[in-house]
Amino acid sequence: MSFIDEFQADLEALPNILQKKYALMRDLDKSFQEIVRQNEQRCEQEIEDIKRGVRAGNITPDTSLIRFSDDALDEQKHSIRIADEKVALAIQAYDLVDSHIQQLDQYLKKSDEELRRERENAAATESPTPSPDGTSKSGRSSESGRGGRKKTRLATAAAAAAAATEVAAVAANPTGMELDLPVDPNEPTYCLCNQVSYGEMVACDNPDCKIEWFHFGCVGLKEQPKGKWYCSDCAALKNRRKGRSM
After folding, report:
1. Which of 40, 55, 107, 169 is deepest in the core (most CB within 10 A)?
2. Is 215 annotated as a binding residue?
3. Which residues hold Zn(2+) 1 (predicted)?
């Protein structure tokens, strides 16, 4: 079984695992809310009893000697334990998704390395075509190589986006609870917005482009461009070079 097959098999099980964790978090949240409600009622009642005792002279007004009952304190401790369990489950859910993201990053890196080796082998084995003046020209091999790179990486990005969408369908707060989880600081960023990879993306056909990958929405695209596509910076640079050559 290849790496991507193993990754897909693990990814298929991820939504069910996350659903179970979120269901447990939801049950804990219900228990937490019930305990808090009971504790608030108990504390309010005990405060009223203390006030009546102070007014009647049965309880000293010294606040250092006044305390809630053991039952009230136990309820508060129990609610803290439930909150800790919810935090632990949230961390586990985040770590699960993060581990799959790291696996996907490894696969993309490995794919890029394999594509690079394939391009180098193809360039080494390609026989040049002699021209009438005796020089050798490779035609549009470099352009087709970049085009192949673009199409292949776009297909890889599309597959990654589809996989991420499947995870996001479950991870996007299915229980209605707000989870403020941290973002992986090692996640690479792209595009003019300097954000992580998401949705459909397009690669600039300038091999020296500093950014290389762009989100459709950030560059005003709604569908995959036909033929070569250059970002605004590379397009302006290309036009300036044309102007100087004329």
Report:
1. 107
2. yes
3. 191, 193, 215, 218
